[in-house]
Amino acid sequence: QGQEKLSCNPKKENGSHVVLCELGNPMKAGAQITVDMELSVSGLEDMGNAISFHLQLRSKNSLSLSNASVTVTVPVEVQAVMELRGNSMPATLVLPTSWHRVEGSRQPEDHGIKVEHVYELHNKGPSTVSGVSLHLAVPTQLGGRTLLYLLDLGTEGVMNCTDPPGLNADQV
């Protein structure tokens, strides 16, 4: 008939997290109760795409041995907004028309002016993420000629990077 707030107590039982809620004591014979529960669960990032709850109704009535149970599976959807920021130093570069690459040289300045590209991948949340892959395509050739000579690839933090083909091919 009316709405009441339940008194619920979390505890551990047989290695599982259990929430016990008292629905009514004593409860009248033939009573029907509808319960709406809102659960806040953290640490679901590596749980896959669903989480299951085992719900069981236990009666303390010695005349009723019924312990009805049901398993409810709820889909888990991780939400995270990723942001890629990039910067080139210098931001603008113009080679003089008289400049020519020195073939066979191992000096970086003979291959062009150094340009450093820095990329930062940021998670703006609300969830944490793992196993993120970033594939960055850099044009190295234009019309069969070298456009950018990839000299080095560096990272900061805990991550794995795969060197692109042709990285420092002339061992500059």
From TrEMBL:
Cellular component terms (Gene Ontology): external side of plasma membrane; integrin complex
Record SUPFAM superfamilies: Integrin domains
Transmembrane segments: none
Any one GO BP annotation for this protein: cell-cell adhesion
UniProt subcellular location: Membrane
Any one GO molecular function term: integrin binding
Main location, first listed in the record: membrane
Topology in the lipid bilayer: Single-pass type I membrane protein
Residue span(s) of domain Integrin alpha third immunoglobulin-like: 83-169
Key words, A-Z: Glycoprotein, Integrin, Membrane
Annotated ranges, domain Integrin alpha second immunoglobulin-like: 3-76
PANTHER family reported in the protein's UniProt record: INTEGRIN ALPHA, INTEGRIN ALPHA-IIB
Name under which the protein is recorded: ITA2B protein
Native species: Upupa epops
Name of the coding gene: Itga2b
